[in-house]
Amino acid sequence: MLTLLKNAQLYAPTSMGLCHLLLADRRIAAVVSAEREAPALGMAVDEIDLEGRRVIPGLVDPLVHFIGGGGEGGFGTRTAELTLDDALASGVTTLVGALGTDALTRTPANLLGKARELAAGGLTTYCYTGSYQLPPVTLTGSVGSDILFIPEFIGVGEVAISDHRGSQPSPFELARLASEARTAGMLAGKSGIVFIHTGDAPSHLEPLRAASRDSAIPLAQFLPTHINRTAELFEDGLRFAREGGRIDFTTSTTAELLAGGEVPASEAVARALHARVEPSRITLSSDANASLPRFDAERRFVGLEPGRLSSPFEVLGECIDEHGIAWETAIGVASTHAADALGLSTKGRLAPGHDADLLILAEGEWSIDEVWALGRRVYRRD
């Protein structure tokens, strides 16, 4: 199947000006400046004139709770599964699923099944083995064999540190887990990333520093999220990134979280860049369909709201429109850098040989007209 998208104002994420994109089945076959004649293919091709609309890579989200999350307030507070319709309209074309707090009533098998359901709908999906707690729950008996033998499992997570709901892992346990994931990843041609849930305890990111300091594991083997959840954690995250680590800001939020000191994700990106954090060290994730719980001073549950998969696209717009961040930089944070951290070499860029995952934006407003995933239109706004 050949598709020619003509006259796209292309951000790949670098601004390429007006271009024609040739899609061959699932991949981008060619990108040609519109100053040149569109390719004459001499064969059947579906031509679509975008008339100068902006085109950006599909977003890459390193933390989505495909089968829901939470339940910290009892069974009545379990969040719902992600629906295919919501996923297709979100602008996220590559999603990584995780279990989170509940690895008792939700399992790696459930997670993998849901990943394959979403993939059957046209998206690209991966998973983390494990959950908040150690020892990790797995499908095959170990983190290493899950990563090595199951195509969708690319790492382990989200393992909780500095949080009262985690298993309080020692630096030695974290280093050992990272070593297993890293080695299996090398054998399987995957990143073996260790995705970390970071709570609001004063220890912040120190467990990761200690794990790296006392072992041969590089800081960048860990990807800690929720770094914008408190002002203190945010500042520690900036230091962590300058030390060679990566940091992930959560785009889903609530009024209560913001009132409690959370740094809005777009502001966090702008402040991190102003603090001279290398942009490639920064990613965004939605925490979609997780619970965003509220606890009182004694850590008792008082309520929750679910995370939203549409939030990364919204935050990307805020980065550009409200904080004046260059398109190339902002798109990198929302797509390219996560693809690199996760070892997804065909994601996060619009270039020949890469997957044809792209968003066609509306004219004159920050919204999505069309989503294309693996060379096929999967969403069109009514």
UniProtKB/TrEMBL annotation:
Obligatory cofactor(s): Zn(2+)
The free-text cofactor remark is: Binds 2 Zn(2+) ions per subunit.
> What does the PTM comment state?
Carboxylation allows a single lysine to coordinate two zinc ions.
**Where along this sequence does the record place binding of substrate?**
G70, G71, E72, T101, Y132, R165, R229, S291
Q: Which biological processes are named by the entry's GO terms?
A: proteolysis
Positions of Zn(2+) 2 binding: H197, H226
Q: Specify where it is mainly localized.
A: cytoplasm
The record lists Zn(2+) 1 as bound by: H65, D287
Mind listing the UniProt keywords for this protein, alphabetically?
A: Hydrolase, Metal-binding, Metalloprotease, Protease, Zinc
> GO CC annotation: what is one?
cytoplasm
Cell compartments where the protein resides: Cytoplasm
Q: Does the keyword Chloroplast apply?
A: no
InterPro entries (UniProt xref): Amidohydro-rel, Metal-dep_hydrolase_composite, Metal_Hydrolase, Metallo-dep_Hydrolases_sf, Pept_M38_dipep
User: From what superkingdom does this record's organism come?
Assistant: Bacteria
Amidohydrolase-related domain mapped to chain residues: 55-361
Q: Which GO terms describe its molecular function?
A: beta-aspartyl-peptidase activity; hydrolase activity, acting on carbon-nitrogen (but not peptide) bonds; metal ion binding; metallopeptidase activity
List membrane-spanning regions.
Answer: none
NCBIfam families with a match to the protein in the record = isoAsp_dipep (TIGR01975)
What task does this protein carry out?
Answer: Catalyzes the hydrolytic cleavage of a subset of L-isoaspartyl (L-beta-aspartyl) dipeptides. Used to degrade proteins damaged by L-isoaspartyl residues formation.
What family is it from? Belongs to the peptidase M38 family.
Question: How is this protein named in the record?
Answer: Isoaspartyl dipeptidase
